[in-house]
Amino acid sequence: MINKTVKVYVYRIRHDYLSSINWFNKYRLRQIDQCLNNAIRQQKIYSWLLLNYAVQKEFKYDIVKQKKFKLINNCFWKYKNYFFSITHRDEYVAIAISMHKIGVDLELFNKKLFKKNIWNRIASENKNLKYSPLSCLILWIKNEAFFKQASSKYIAWSNKKNDEEVTVVNIKSTKIWLAITCNKKNLKLVIDI
Q1: What pTM value is reported for the model?
Q2: Are 60 and 68 in contact (CB under 8 A)?
C-alpha cells in the first residue's frame, strides 16, 4: 500500500526527446517550450512521462491531460492526498510518490564535479564531517531532497535534519545516487528501475 510506502521510479532516457508532445496539458507544454536547453527539455519530457507511468501503475489514472495536479512552491506535485517529487540528471529521471510530503534528488557520482569548494559551501555547519568527493555528493543530494520536501530555499538539511530522516541509496553499484526524505518515519522504500 502506498500509504506506508515511498515508491521511487527511476528511468534512463534512451532516445532523443519525442517529436510529438502535443498530448501534454497546456501548462506542461508551456514549461517544455520555454526550455531552450535540449538536454533539460528532454529531461522534463521524460520526467512527465515517468510521472504519468507511475500514476497509472499506482492509481490506474491517466494524468497527461488532467489539470488536477498542483505544483507546490515549484518543489513537488500534489494530487489529492499524494505527493510527488521529481528529479533528473543527465540521462536519468526519477519520481518519488508518498502520502506524505516528500523530496527526492538524483545525482551521478563524478569526483571531478564534487570538489572541495562545493563542500565548503554546503558543509559549513557540519564541521565534524570529513571531505571526500563521495561525501560531498551525499551531502549535496541530502540538501536537495530536503529542499524539495520542505519547499523552501532557506532551509538546508545540514542544520535542520539528521541522518535518520534522509535515506541515501546507491542503485545497484552504479554511479547513480538517490536521496529521499519524507516527513513520516518508518516508511518502506520501494525502488522501481
Answers
A1: 0.81
A2: no
> Where are the extended beta strands (E) located within the chain?
5-12, 70-72, 76-79, 82-89, 92-98, 102-108, 166-170, 176-182, 188-192
Cell 502535443 sits on residue = 22
Look up cell 499506482; give the residue: 58
Cell output for 177: 545516487
Q: Which residues contact 12 (CB under 8 A, 6 or more apart)?
A: 91, 92
**Which pLDDT tens digit goes with each residue over 162-177?**
555 788 889 877 889 9
CATH topology assigned to domain 2-192: Ribosomal Protein L22; Chain A (3.90.470)
| Sheet (strand 92-98) strand order | 70-72, 76-79, 82-89, 92-98, 5-12, 188-192
User: Read out DSSP for 29-56?
Assistant: HHHHHT---HHHHHHHHHHHHHHHHHHH
Q: Which three cell numbers stand for residue 79?
A: 494530487
